[in-house]
């Protein structure tokens, strides 16, 4: 099979544990692009953050952000697809999250708000290098932190519907909150996990649905696509494409779904997979 498109997850996949994209990985990506492989991003991150990465890698295709809820051409900021959650549902979800004392961030295309502490130590320690610190600052500048009692009123006054809710907090409380949300909104939302926290999306939205839209736009068959990821929000994407690859640092459940398991994100796993399944074939 000749592969034409590569979709890359970011955190835990393209990025190392200390939030770098290695020189070798960048080099291999550019070599593959020169030999005809198209590259896009498929990430749970919001658009401003993903756009910085796309520019850093000089990518040209539309990118899949917010776990498939927002697909956009970052070169001219023109959306290809968007699927938002109704504000009435957002309010009900927030009320459940507050009952479990969970921290959350509600994401729009270029801004976000919530009670999440963006510059807390857990978040800060993820950003060790200049590129990632710039990403953190770019995201932080678009984020508005509020007290719990003001959030619901803000949603009521804000006519723009969001794409996603990111939830952080105690694992036991997250699991309890998830069970209640899945029971209450089972025909309205999809809940997944990025490895960093719980993510709430519109029903049937995933990185796989995003790739289906993008491949249709490009005129490719899904069998011509490689996707690489490491977490539970990558499962559908890995299962959907012709060659689904799991990172060596991925949980076993993700690895078992994949057709191939590459090296870890700290051992240039993305570069190794590209070399194995594209560059050697093109040599």
Automatic annotation (TrEMBL):
It holds the Pfam family Hydrolase_3. It comes from the Bacteria. GO terms for cellular component: cytosol. CDD domains: HAD_Pase. Coiled coil: none annotated. Transmembrane segments: none annotated. InterPro entries: Cof, HAD-like_sf, HAD_sf. GO terms for molecular function: magnesium ion binding; phosphatase activity. PANTHER family: PHOSPHOSERINE PHOSPHATASE, STRESS RESPONSE PROTEIN YHAX. This is HAD family phosphatase. It comes from Oceanirhabdus seepicola.
């Amino acid at each position: 099979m000749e592969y034409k498109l590569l979709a890359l997850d970011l955190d835990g996949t393209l990025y190392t544990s200390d939030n770098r994209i290695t020189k070798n990985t960048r080099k291999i990506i550019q070599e593959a692009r020169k030999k005809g492989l198209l590259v896009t991003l498929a990430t749970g991150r919001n658009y401003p953050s993903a756009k910085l990465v796309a520019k850093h890698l000089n990518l040209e295709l539309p990118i899949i952000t917010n776990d498939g809820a927002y697909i956009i051409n970052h070169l001219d900021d023109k959306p290809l697809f968007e699927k938002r959650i109704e504000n009435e549902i957002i309010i009900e979800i927030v009320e459940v999250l507050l009952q479990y004392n969970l921290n959350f961030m509600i994401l729009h295309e270029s801004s976000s708000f919530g009670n999440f502490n963006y510059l807390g130590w857990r978040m800060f320690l993820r950003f060790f290098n200049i590129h990632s610190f710039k990403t953190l600052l770019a995201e932080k500048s678009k984020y508005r932190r509020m007290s719990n009692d003001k959030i619901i009123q803000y949603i009521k006054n804000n006519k723009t519907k969001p794409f996603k809710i990111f939830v952080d907090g105690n694992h036991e409380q997250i699991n309890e909150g998830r069970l209640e949300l899945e029971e209450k909104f089972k025909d309205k939302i999809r809940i997944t996990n990025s490895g960093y926290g719980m993510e709430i999306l519109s029903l049937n939205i995933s990185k796989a649905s995003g790739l289906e839209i993008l491949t249709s736009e490009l005129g490719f068959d899904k069998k011509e696509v490689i996707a690489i990821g490491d977490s539970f929000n990558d499962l559908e994407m890995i299962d959907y494409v012709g060659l689904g690859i799991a990172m060596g640092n991925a949980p076993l459940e993700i690895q078992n779904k994949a057709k191939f398991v590459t090296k870890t994100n700290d051992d240039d796993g993305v570069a190794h997979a590209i070399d194995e399944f594209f560059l050697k074939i093109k040599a």
